[in-house]
Structure formats: C-alpha cells, structure tokens
Write a structure and sequence with these properties.
Strands 1, 2, 3, 4, 5, 6, 7 and 8 form an eight-stranded mixed beta sheet that branches. Helices cover 28% and strands 39% of the residues. The chain has two domains: 71 residues, no CATH class; 103 residues, Tetrahydropterin Synthase, Chain A (2-Layer Sandwich), CATH 3.30.479. The N and C termini lie far apart (41 Å). The longest helix is centred in the last third of the chain and has 21 residues. By secondary structure, the chain is of the alpha+beta class.
Length: 182
C-alpha cells in the first residue's frame, strides 16, 4: 500500500506582523492547507514583546510556492492576566463593540476595564457607554492595520483610559479580544 507524498509548507505571518515564517505544516495538496487556523503567543513572534499574555489567531488564506500565507483573524488575552488584574474592592466592566473599519473590514472588539475601587452600577454603566462610543468612533474612522497596531503598542488603551478617568479612576483598560469577520 502506497502512501501519499506530503509536502512541507512554511506558515508566513501577514505584513502587519513582519511577514515572519512562524511554523511549518504538512499536506499532500496545497488546497488542503488553505483554511487551517493557527494560534501563536506574542512571545513566539517577538521575544521582546511586553504583551506576553496575548494570543494571536491566524487563518491560512492562500499558498504560493511552498509558503502558506496567513491573515490575522483576532487575538485574545490570557485568563490569568484578567484574573490577576481584578482585585478585591474593584469593579470589572466588560464592553463589546462591533463596527466596520474605514477600509470595510468588520471588526469586533471586547474591552476589559477595571476601576480603582468598587463603583455603583450607574457609574459602571456610564463608563461602559463612554468606552463603547469612543471605540465605535475610533473603529469607523481608521483603517484596520492602524487599529491593530495601536492595540499592540498600547496607544488605544491609553487613550481610552484617559477618557474614562474623567468619569472615575481606572486602573486597567485592555482590549480583551478582537475578532475579524472575513
């Protein structure tokens, strides 16, 4: 009984992540590689990354030569990071925004906010509402690559925290999860 000869394909990250070869996959036909998903922690992409708790998700979209080219489909923050930042006598506020970017990509962001002390429900509601309004305006007014870049270098979180601090002192703002609708 003869087995099929399988080829090795290098998985290449998108331009946004420096087009690095991150892993290898095996298949007998290039068409069988397309559609596979890959999850990679930030430290595997860049050892110097301060975002060690980020896990990026990629999908293989096409194969050229022996290279499997990927597309960014989202990220997640580890549960341990969330649990170590939610302290006793603080309030956790979660928000959700789904909007199209300036270049037409549908992006869903889930934000995670921790206040410095416990807050009333009315204050938590106004913090969530202000965060949602800010993120909706930001997503609709910018291109996809710029949004993801600003999340990775913490600029978006810093801007959001500055705005939310006008309502109540905030200790942590993080984009907990992002999803790209392809």
């Amino acid at each position: 009984m003869k087995g099929k000869t399988k080829k090795e394909f290098d998985i290449v990250l998108p331009k946004l992540f420096g087009e690095k070869t991150i892993a290898k996959t095996i298949a007998d036909k290039p068409s069988k590689v397309v559609g596979r998903n890959l999850s990679v922690y930030a430290r595997e992409i860049d050892e110097k990354s301060r975002k060690y708790y980020y896990k990026f998700n990629f999908k293989i979209v096409k194969v050229e030569d022996n290279k499997a080219l990927t597309s960014f489909i989202g990220h997640e923050v580890s549960r341990s990071f969330i649990s170590e930042n939610v302290k006793k006598f603080s309030t956790r506020i979660d928000g959700y925004v789904k909007k199209k970017t300036k270049d037409g990509i549908e992006l869903c962001l889930k934000v995670f906010i921790v206040t410095a002390k416990n807050v009333k429900t009315s204050i938590a509601r106004s913090i969530r509402k202000k965060a949602k309004n800010f993120l909706e305006l930001y997503i609709s007014g910018n291109e996809f690559d710029k949004i993801i870049n600003r999340i990775l270098i913490d600029e978006l979180q810093r801007d959001l925290k500055k705005i939310l601090n006008t309502i109540y002192p905030i200790s942590v703002v993080e984009i907990r999860k992002s999803e790209v609708k392809l």
